[in-house]
Every structure is written in C-alpha cells, then in structure tokens.
C-alpha cells in the first residue's frame, strides 16, 4: 500500500513518438529533490532495485553534454546516500546505465539502476 503508482512523463516539448519512449512507471518514490527523482523499479531484478533519474530530459548516455557534468555528479552522490540510508553501502551494490537497445535500454530518459541485496555475477547478461 506504500506509495502510489503512476505513469509520468517529466518532459514537455517532445514529439509524440519520443514521448512514447520516455515513460516510467513511477512507483514508491524513495528520494526527490529539485534535480532528481529515485523510485523502486516496478520489475525488480534484485531485492533492492532503485531507479535514479534526472528531472531534466536526457534520452541516453551519449546525449550528455558539458553542462550535465554537475548533474551526473549529483546523481552519484544521491546513489551514495540511498546506499547508506537503505543499508547496502557496505555489503555492496551495482550501478548500471543501459545505453541504446542492444544494451537493454527500453525507456529513453536516462536512468541509473541501483541494484543490491544479493550476490551478483560477472560478466553481466
Ligand atoms: Zn525524458
């Protein structure tokens, strides 16, 4: 019952086709500030599976520009805080950004997967 479930499109000024590829199911928000939002993945792959996204629209990793440097640094500090607050900072966790279809990107608004809570393998699938 915790939290609400809604489909959110954070962006304006986008073509319809682009908007269709830019929708998250935002479920159980765990952190929000003026720049980023973090929430539980609706389809968790690990006991903890948080998505951290910038509020600014960036489609994918290769669209980052110089002006995003501070934002991306901020995202990693938020990830660090979540790891501390949720209690998996010491056990360990993984941060994954999938860039484009071949890597498994399905939503075209950049997002950082924070995965934790079980032993993980390498190489990843
Ligand atoms: Zn977007």
How many strands, what sense, and barrel or not for the largest sheet? 6 strands, antiparallel
User: If strands are numbered along the chain, what order do they take across the biggest sheet?
Assistant: 1-2-3-4-6-5
Distance between the termini: 32 Å
Low-pLDDT stretches are 1-5
Write the CATH homologous superfamily. Answer: HIT-like
Query: Can you tell me the overall shape?
Result: globular
CATH second-level architecture: 2-Layer Sandwich
Helix amount, in percent?
10-25%
How do the helices and strands follow one another from N- to C-terminus? EHEEEHEE
Quickly count the domains. Answer: 1
The helix-and-strand class reads alpha+beta
- The strand count comes to 6
CATH class type: Alpha Beta
Mean pLDDT metric: 89
CATH fold title: HIT family, subunit A
**CA radius of gyration:** 14 Å
Number of helical segments with 4 or more residues: 2
Query: What small molecules does this complex bind?
Result: zinc ion
Strand percentage lies at 25-35%
